[in-house]
Design goal:
Number of strands: 2
Structural class: mainly alpha
Radius of gyration: 28 Å
Strand order of the largest sheet: 1-2
Strand content: under 5%
Amino acid sequence: MRKLILLVLDSIAARLPVQFKVLHKQFLLRVVDLEALSIEADIPRFLGQFAGVLIMLSFVHAFAVYVQIMEYPIRLEHYLISTMMLVAGLIIVVSWDSTFPDRRDITVLAPLPVRPIMILSAKLCASISLLGIAILALNTAPGLLAPLLLGQLHASMFGFFQVLAAYWIMMIAATLFLYGAVLSFQGLMALVLPRRLFMQLSAFLQLCAFGIFIAVYFLEPALGTVPELLAPQNRHVLSISPQFWFLAMFNQINGSLPHELHWVAQRAWIALGMVIAGASISLLLSYLRTMKKTIEAPDLLPGTRGVHWTPHFRGLRSAIAVFSFRSLTRSRQHRVVFAFFLAIVAAIGITCLRREIYAPAPEPLPSDFLISSLMMMSISVLGVRAVFALPISLNANWILRTTQLQPTRRYMAATRATLLLFSVLPMMIVAILLSLNYRPWLRVGAHLALLALFGLLFVELAMIKLDKIPFTCSYLPGKANVQVIFWGASFVWIILAVLAGTSEQRALESPTRYVAMFGILLGAAIVLGIFNRLLARTAVLYFEESQPEILTRLGLSFVPQAPIAETFKSAAP
């Protein structure tokens, strides 16, 4: 079967134009900005590792399917659809404007004999290929196990095949709906707005889309039974929620949808047709009418009006802080990576906020909030640290290399201050706002003091071996095993967060334990700070990631032998 599929794919690929195959490969590999990568980067390996992470998530979903599908089938179906739409939505936001032509595409391809429709087809197929990889990877296990178990509920022998077809049709339709909706909206904006205003609003809307997908996923009500779906008070939720539209579509195809809910499935089919038509029209008009505006108008220019203010510290710290702030706000690549970590923080924060909304006010400080705030702080520091590793422009790194007029330790101190400013301070503000509903105030203040110490400790941990200026060193993907790091770090991180939260809960109940815990954290932060400052005295800034040099032994050993002349003498007659 595998050989047959490969033969079919090879025959299809052989009939495609050479221009299409070359452009499709380049656009698919440009999911990661090539200008930010090291010259030794292995992009296919990098993408394969993230596909492996999604495959591992699919087996986690398969376990949930096996445990709950017989007891709560509708709720589980809704969970699988919502998760798939969340992953697809985040991937679409990551490749926000990859389907539309940018300045580099037009500058390089316009002088060549390549038609715009060929560029459009290659870009569109590259984006769809990325979504297809995500769908297949995330549904590797549940895409077979869920139809197998749901098919047992059907009396006919074709129940499995019917549910299997319904499952994959629904997943593909839901992904196309999200993709088409985003493309329709972007194409309409590109046609109506000037190029400069479109680029400015596009950056803002990209971050808003991240927040919308996360908020909908965590705040949407879970309706897990047919009576709940048929309840009149839930009709408004069904009418505006795409997740329930495609849930109804799935049950309509497999033949288990009640007659009273057919109007919900019709909304899914109508919405799918509308977004596909809108995306097709907007893409065609964009490639035929707005390509000249792309090359003639600048992408972004500094504004000449308005209030321009940035925080000022002193000297080098001010320069690196302002440089990091502008890099993070102006670069799409950095916003996307940072938004991924912010999405996790927002998910935890929304969960805490949802509990506070429905809880009586005020209430005692729970251990769940302690664990959640610690998780948010650690993820915030990790996210800023990860973004610092991506350069803003490798072509401009020579400016920073030639202007290193101060010792390396001062650059490290400036990086530490920037990390505190961008990660610890915002999370402290969020934690203060989320803790307004808890009492007593003394215990809340004690927790916030410990949280600040945890943030300082996380920053010192992140500063170990960070011998570079933020946003100036090239990135080398594929050098680490992403699957092992992701799952190992996730389990260790969750275990440590739970242990730290429970220990803090006991410390808040005893002044002696609290003072001991405060002293241990403060001492650990001081020791790590001294250690990092000692390393910074002899550190050298680097701007290019490279693979470590590995010496491979051939396994050859030297065996003493007789001289060559004696060998010939002994062989002579």
